[in-house]
Design brief:
The complex is a heterotrimer of chains A (102), B (307) and C (260).
Chain A: H1 3-24
Chain B: E1 23-26, H1 32-38, E2 44-48, H2 58-69, E3 72-75, H3 89-102, E4 106-110, E5 113-116, E6 119-125, H4 131-148, E7 153-155, H5 170-181, E8 184-188, H6 189-199, H7 203-209, E9 215-221, E10 224-227, E11 233-236, H8 245-258, E12 263-266, H9 274-290, H10 299-305
Parallel strand pairs in B: 1-2, 1-12, 2-3, 3-4, 4-7, 7-8, 8-9, 9-12
Antiparallel strand pairs in B: 5-6, 10-11
Helix pairs in contact in B: 4-5
Chain C: H1 16-21, H2 42-63, H3 65-71, H4 73-86, H5 101-106, H6 116-132, H7 141-145, H8 149-152, E1 164-166, H9 172-176, E2 194-198, E3 205-209, H10 211-221, H11 226-236, H12 242-252
Antiparallel strand pairs in C: 1-2, 2-3
Helix pairs in contact in C: 2-4, 3-4, 10-11
The chains are: A mainly alpha (102), B alpha/beta (307), C mainly alpha (260).
């Protein structure tokens, strides 16, 4: 056993004892609950029809930049989504003029 | 990443349990707590097979708890029975794993397609009713039944378009699918109503001509009203509200001819709180009860699912 | 003829399902020729277009609820339509749909200035995969208590099926929390955060970890023995606290029992 290996083994042994005691002092996870916490409604297959005849499915995909607004409100506390080619404006609601690729 | 369930699920501990001639409800994850806590008096639950094809976690834990307490029906929404390509063997294996594990009382799929050239469109898409499409569907239904080793039910669709090349009526097409493949039928009464309104034929005539002796389950759901290019009403199978009064009326007519049948309330969009769904199910149960023969209560439904 | 009138068995094949499918994701394609009264069937065919496109966008929204809040409904839907056109679902299991969203966002030129979006997508995807991951009993302290000190360095801890370690140069933890509501103050976008995703029982847990912890747990998850992972982490991150990292692994259910 090299010096380094021996040192590692010692560190590990000490840390393991500490870790087991730390982990034990925390309450274990609750038993299986079937109620609605964290229910993922994502990725559900269903057999219902959507919103009728006039909605996103029938409108053209808009590749023009002039109506893209990547930021919902003009607030300095918003996350600023930068759109390429635009000056970095905090929460700018102004239209983006650059065309977007298809 | 695709997950294959068969390798992960423990061996089934469920014994087959037939679906009673009562009302049932499409299971929603958000209702499981209410259902278990109130020990809801529901005849059966139905789930979409595709939502239980993951490896583990909460969906399976919930469904096992439901299956321990209630009869279960498994309804596939992604097999693309009406697709031009072959039945996806991987998907069929996953479907079989769900059926094998949960031992449902009924297994059903749709007269529709959703996959073409490997793209899954996540919708029940329509097809022309021709000799060629009939042969394909009979073949696909046979493949599914052989793979899972039991009969399936095929559901009539809600449609918004028809095809110039169709040479069969939908009723005759369904009759022939059942006759040739040996499958049973799931009669969606709301779909009958929606399609009849959209294509200008009589829903009662459809039911009168339908092979009701093949029907082992009924679906009821709410529909939305829209309009077509000419401004005529176009009904949408939205499953987002109560069953319409006209559909209840059509359902009563069906029940009077079939006797009690398992009847599912489908509510998939704008899903309400549990009590509202339970109330819809109660309404169906009352109608089923009126058509129940005074002796041998529930026997009809049991006899129908005994394969 | 599709109602109750009787039919015959003859019939010729039209363009088939392919013709019908062509316009579902592409609004520039006209109503398929085989539809009866196609000239007046735009809205009827539109029902299917809506079902497909709106259904897929909704599925994407449900899978990426943090990004939905961060980007806003309209922006999300627009990016979603680009994604769907480029990566329509290939599996009939909707839980598989959207797996490539992070990669798509990373390569989406208009969003080059917001690289954190892709990392948030990676974390949200890890959450969903953990949700559906196989059930397994997590490793506990008791499993390790009797271990001989000399056996520790060579120990390989198998990752729990739900485990994911997401390292990022962006505040992905703060951004992930947007799914619970928009905070009063936005996060410091210059901050770096890493996340540990686990599911000890049925509930998915997202735990913020330090960079050394993420490096160490990631090495273990990749199959490195305990000794090697410790040495490598300490060499790169001298302030690394091994005991805390191991305790975190035990508490969060990151690993399962090694095969005897």
């Amino acid at each position: 056993m090299s010096k380094k290996t021996a040192a590692t083994a010692a560190i590990l042994a000490g840390a393991m004892t500490a870790a087991i005691s730390m982990a034990a002092s925390t309450a274990p996870a609750n038993a299986a609950k079937l109620k609605c916490y964290g229910v993922a409604l994502a990725g559900q297959n269903d057999c219902a029809a959507g919103p009728g005849t006039t909605c996103a499915g029938t409108s053209k995909v808009d590749y023009q930049g002039n109506s893209w607004k990547y930021v919902e409100a003009n607030s300095c506390d918003e996350v600023v989504i930068k759109v390429d080619g635009q000056p970095d404006r905090m929460g700018s609601p102004e239209p983006i003029e650059r065309d977007l690729p298809s | 990443m695709q997950t294959i369930l068969s390798a992960n699920l423990p061996p089934s501990r469920f014994v087959p349990r037939p679906i009673p001639a009562r009302s049932g409800v499409g299971l929603k994850a958000q209702h499981v707590g209410d259902i278990l806590e109130t020990a809801a008096d529901i005849g059966f639950f139905e789930v979409h097979a595709e939502n239980y094809m993951g490896a583990g976690g909460l969906p399976h834990a919930q469904l096992r708890a439901i299956r321990e307490r209630y009869p279960l029906s498994v309804h596939g929404v992604g097999m693309s029975i009406g697709g031009e390509g072959r039945i996806d063997p991987q998907h069929l294996a996953r479907f079989k794993a769900v059926v094998d594990h949960y031992q449902p009382g009924l297994v059903s799929e749709h007269l529709a397609w959703s996959t073409h050239d490997d793209v899954f469109y996540n919708d029940l898409l329509p097809l022309p009713y021709t000799g060629a499409t009939l042969a394909r569907i009979v073949d696909h239904v046979g493949q599914v039944q052989e793979a899972i080793g039991r009969q399936i039910l095929i559901e009539n669709p809600s449609t918004y378009v028809t095809f110039a090349e169709s040479t069969w009526s939908e009723v005759d097409f369904m009759t022939e699918i059942a006759r040739r493949s040996g499958c049973g039928l799931l009669l969606d009464v709301n779909n009958v109503f929606v399609s009849a309104a959209n294509h200008g034929y009589g829903a009662r005539d459809y039911v009168a001509a339908y092979p009701l002796d093949r029907v082992q389950e009924i679906h009821l759901g709410g529909h939305a009203k829209d309009a077509d290019d000419a401004g005529r009403p176009l009904l949408i199978d939205a499953h987002d509200r109560e069953v319409a009064d006209d559909v209840w009326a059509l359902y009563r007519l069906v029940l009077a001819r079939t006797g009690p049948l398992p009847t599912l309330i489908e509510w998939d969009n704008d899903v309400p709180a549990w009590p509202m769904l339970a109330a819809e199910a109660e309404r169906a149960d009352r109608l089923i009860g009126r058509n129940r023969p005074p002796v041998h209560v529930g026997l009809a439904g049991v006899a129908l699912v005994a394969q | 003829m599709t109602g109750v009138a009787s039919g015959t068995e003859s019939g010729t094949a039209g363009a088939g399902n392919g013709g019908f499918a062509a316009g579902l994701l592409d609004p520039d394609v006209e109503v398929p020729a085989e539809i009866s009264g196609r000239r007046a069937a735009t809205r009827r065919y539109g029902v299917y277009r809506n079902n497909v496109v709106v259904g897929l966008i909704d599925a994407l929204k449900a899978a990426y609820p943090s990004l939905l809040v961060i980007m806003g409904e309209m922006n999300f839907a627009r990016v979603g339509r680009h994604f769907i056109a480029a990566h329509p679902p290939r599996s009939p299991m909707m839980q598989d749909f959207g797996a490539g969203f992070a990669e798509f966002l990373a390569g989406f030129a208009p969003l080059r200035g917001s690289p954190f979006l892709a990392d948030v997508a990676r974390l949200e995807r890890a959450w969903l995969e953990a949700y559906h991951a196989a059930d397994a009993a997590p490793l506990t302290g008791a499993d390790l208590a009797g271990l001989a000190p000399e056996a520790m360095a060579g120990l390989v801890l198998p990752a729990h099926p739900a485990l994911a370690v997401i390292c990022s140069d962006h505040p992905i933890g703060d951004l992930f929390a947007y799914r619970f509501g928009r905070p009063e103050r936005g996060p410091d976008l210059a901050a770096s955060q890493s996340a540990l995703v686990t599911r000890p029982e049925l509930e998915v847990r997202v735990t913020m970890v330090t960079r050394p912890q993420a490096r160490f747990l990631g090495s273990l998850a990749a199959g490195q023995p305990l000794g090697e992972a410790t040495e490598a982490t300490l060499a790169a991150e001298p302030e690394f606290d091994l005991a805390t990292a191991l305790a975190l692994a035990l508490q969060s259910g990151a690993f399962v029992r090694p095969l005897a």
